[in-house]
Task: inverse folding
């Protein structure tokens, strides 16, 4: 079994070797060398300012192809290789199932969308789409993996009436403002 005595070094070969039946070692004895990492292969991405090898604690910067995004974090060269694997994953928008107040979505049953793909969200009759007063709307997935509008249906409520002739409108209308409620 081999290991380097200095934490600033790494083995350039196997951690263990054994004696074979013909009296030779299974592999050559490893050496302790300065910590280094080779540039990784990144599917759907390229390394910015690539080097032949990276020294301990050096960071690698990379960019992903259009339609892909980098995994969170910055890969750093360590004794055990890259601290995190530099990868590019496909950009998608996810539609959560079981959103309260939703009547239907189209295409039905689909919950993963690529950039520029759209869904039609239709809320129940007593709900409307968050930030709008619409019961149904086409919502597009953006290039960054975010929806152009949150696909959420909120219960329809009324605003507090703001009229100079009403005394204390916020107090009077502070209770239930849901669709169908009557105030006397």
Result:
């Amino acid at each position: 079994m081999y290991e380097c005595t200095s934490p600033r070094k790494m083995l350039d070969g196997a951690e263990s070797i054994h004696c074979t039946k013909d009296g030779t070692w299974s592999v050559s004895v490893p050496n302790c060398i300065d910590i280094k990492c080779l540039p990784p292969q990144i599917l759907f991405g390229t390394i910015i300012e690539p080097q032949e090898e990276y020294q301990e604690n050096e960071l690698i910067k990379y960019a992903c192809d259009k339609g892909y995004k980098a995994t969170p974090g910055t890969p750093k060269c360590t004794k055990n290789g890259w601290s995190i694997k530099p990868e590019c994953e496909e950009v998608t928008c996810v539609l959560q199932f079981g959103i309260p107040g939703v009547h239907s979505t189209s295409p039905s049953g689909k919950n993963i969308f690529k950039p520029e793909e759209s869904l039609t969200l239709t809320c129940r009759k007593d709900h409307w789409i968050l930030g709008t007063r619409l019961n149904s709307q086409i919502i597009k997935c953006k290039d960054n993996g975010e929806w152009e509008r949150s696909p959420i249906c909120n219960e329809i409520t009324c605003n507090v009436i703001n009229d100079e002739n009403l005394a204390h409108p916020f107090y009077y209308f502070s209770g239930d403002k849901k669709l169908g409620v009557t105030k006397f």
Q: What stands out?
A: The domain at 8-90 is CATH 2.10.70.10 (Complement Module; domain 1). The chain is about 0% helix and 30% strand. The chain has two domains: 8-90, 92-184.
